[in-house]
Amino acid sequence: MRQHSKRLGRNVISLGAVSFFTDVASEMMYPLLPVFLASVLGASASFIGVIEGAAESVAALLKLASGWWSDRVKSRKGLVVAGYVLASVVRPFTAATHTASQVLGIRVTDRIGKGIRSTPRDALIAESVDPSIRGRAFGFHAAADNAGAVVGPLIAFGVLYEWHTPLRTVFWLTAIPGALAVLVLWIFVKDIPHATSAGNRPQMLGTDLSSRFWGYLAVVFTFTLGNSTDAFLLLRARQLGVAIALAPVLWALLNFIKSITGTYGGGLSDRIGRKPLIIGGWMVYAAVYLAFGLAHSAWQAWVLFAVYGVFYGMTEGTEKALVVDLVPSQRKGTALGWYNLAIGIGALPASLLFGAIWDSAGAPRAFMFGAAIALAASLGMIFVNVRSGARVEP
User: Fold this and answer.
1) Which of 128, 141, 159, 172 is the most buried (most CB within 10 A)?
2) Number of CB atoms found within 10 A of residue 177's CB
3) Residue 165 maps to which CATH number?
4) Side-chain half-sphere of 141: how many Cα atoms within 13 Å?
5) Is residue 2 part of a domain?
């Protein structure tokens, strides 16, 4: 096994920078997209759910394929580069759309890029650090990603508020940070040689992965069924009285909390175990969704967005670290691919169902449904046989 220092190192820091710039680009657009779809293009809540659910599900299928393939070849970086380039090129063209269906096409293509890059990138992160700091590495990457999601909405807010530019102009400007992300990736990130799984055909189906891994994945999938797109949180905030111009600032607040808690949350899981962090985070999610259903004023939306960020800080890096803990070292990519597939496949029915409940019974009922699913998953996680803490590879 390769020996690592207990520092994060060049690859992890560089990949964090890549994700930072990518999220600056995507989050300049994301908090404005639900409003653009609903008020400019006339899309319903259900169709917004279709867009986000379909995009994430397509990405999830590719995350499994790219993760499996990256286990079979020597280089993971090629897939990572291809995915970031595709997303960075197509994303700004949202500015040229005139129908919700066109947004759907661009959003799906953007997520295809995410599907190609995400799993090989996560496997590369895991291979770039000592196993004893794996949680901190994934937590740092999530924190950098979320820092970009702070800066992006603030840039969008500044452009809209100070320059009074149209939404479409903001979308075109996302090309700049997207190009910076690709440049940093190309220059600073290096491949890490790894043992390949080429020639072992049954491994494509994950037959060599442990029962503990599959049990964990089943509970993650259950949680995902109640974890609809965060676009609905922005729509709910608008219902509660948050002005459209403040939507990017509200989104920045969420991602600021995610960023400042991410590295700590991942590092804490290295010390006390992954399972307590995941259960606690899912219970925070359930409480926040219940409160969103009961909320009645704008100030409550601001408080709930901040608390919601703690859920991400506790779980984003921790969940991925536990995936890697539970599988053989040469199967990191495939296991992370299955994890991403479970989340992505669950995203479509989760968003469709949430949107349908919203349209038929109102937002409070939809949020209460999400809270109930999250609570059920939290209870289920208690009984899953997973190994707490980081598993040091032999």
Assistant:
1) 141
2) 22
3) 1.20.1250.20
4) 29
5) no
User: Does residue 204 lie within any of the structural domains?
Assistant: no
User: What mean pLDDT do residues 291-297 have?
Assistant: 93
Tell me if 199 is assigned to some domain. no
3-state secondary structure of 6: coil
The model's pLDDT over 295-341, given as tens digits with 9 standing for 90+, comes to 999 999 999 999 999 999 999 889 988 988 888 877 888 888 899 88
Would the CA dihedral through 192, 197, 203, 205 be positive or negative? positive
Domain range holding 261?
A: 9-189+210-382
Query: According to the model, what pLDDT value does residue 393 have?
Result: 39
Please state, in angstroms and rounded to a whole number, the distance separating the CA atoms of residues 132 and 347.
Answer: 31
Is the Cα dihedral 92, 96, 102, 103 positive or negative?
positive
**Region of 328 on the Ramachandran plot (φ > 0 left; ψ -120 to 50 alpha; else beta):** beta
Considering the chain, what is the average pLDDT of its residues? 86
Task: Determine what percent of the chain falls in helix, strand and coil, rounding each to the nearest 5.
Answer: 80, 0, 20
Q: How many structural domains does the chain have?
A: 1
Q: Which residues of 313-352 are buried (b: 16+ CB within 10 A; e: fewer)?
A: bbbbbbbbbbbbbbbbebbbbbbbbbbbbbbbbbbbebbb
- pLDDT digits 0-9 by tens, 129-151: 888 898 899 999 989 988 988 88
pLDDT at 290: 96
The pLDDT of 166-187, averaged and rounded, is 93
Q: Is 260 exposed, middle or buried (0-12, 13-18, 19+ CB in 10 A)?
A: middle
* Residue 329 located in a structural domain: yes
Tens digit of pLDDT for each residue in 366-377? Answer: 999 999 999 999
With residue 260 as reference, give the H or E element that holds it: helix 247-272
Q: How far is CA 177 from CA 81, 158, 286, 344, in A?
A: 15, 16, 34, 26
In degrees, rounded to 5, the angle at the alpha carbon of residue 107 between the alpha carbons of residues 103 and 109 is: 120
Q: What tokens appear for 165 in the block?
A: 């530019």
| Structural tokens at position 272 | 């006390």
Provide the pLDDT for residue 208. Answer: 66
- Token pair for 97: 């759309």
